[in-house]
Amino acid sequence: MTLVLHPERARLAGARLFEAFEGSGPGIFGTKEMPEDLLPSGVERGSEEHLRFITFTVSIDYMRDAVQLWRASREAFESDKARLIFDPTRVMGMAPDDLQSWLMNLSISRKHAPDAVTWHAVASVLESFFDGSVAELIQRCDYSAPSLLATIRRMPTKIRYLSGPKIGPLWVRMLRDNCDVAIKQMEALPIPVDVHVARATLAVGAIESDSSVPEAVLYQKIRDVWVDACKGTGFYPMQFDKALWQQSRLGCTYRSATTCSKGPECGVADMCVRGRIAFREGSVEVDTSPLQPMFASA
Hints:
2 domains; four-stranded antiparallel β-sheet; 12 helices; 7% strand; elongated
């Protein structure tokens, strides 16, 4: 099995995508907005309410339509009746079946029982150890990104799914970017890898392979290549998360093994490589070795 990392390609593509998403231009495929960017009406940016909205919602942002999830969660928070599900004290007073029904009826939950268990775990840890406050959790971790992750990954304050390799760093990034919390040591966090980040990374040839790769193996290699890509630069891996996610969702999703309909408007089309990239249960089929340009002019 060939599995070769090309951090120099990641470095070049990442810098261009970062500038497209964070710079003064129109964004990636004309978009700069992320699903979590819109606040519920009446909520102050960076307030405890905002911190809870972000924390509860991102805890179940796993293998589902993120746009739909954040929309449903935002609408629930804007409802005087439904807002109680973002209150750790109120959640702790609910029967499990009642919480599950709330999440299902509000279209927040798609996995039903697992989502309710995770939602309850967030409430339980906040209520039992941090006076029901996300801000208190952040303060006790001294605003440190590694400390925040370590806290939600060890007992007794471990939080199911929120502590995972994708969701954990994503949550910390949202605390900083969306809630304006002055989180320190962001450079110590790995990039959170999901299907979109993986697809965009593979499409620009930052990793090449000639066979099916176990998902866990590939995702770790993707984290590694972005660490290597940042060495000697002013970047750190988490800075590329949003740009790669948008690049895949709005662009690379439309690629096939031999072409991509978004090529004419893609900012990294000249780096796009030919070959199959297909996500299966537990593995990813990657047939991009040796690297060949997708477009003849590349």
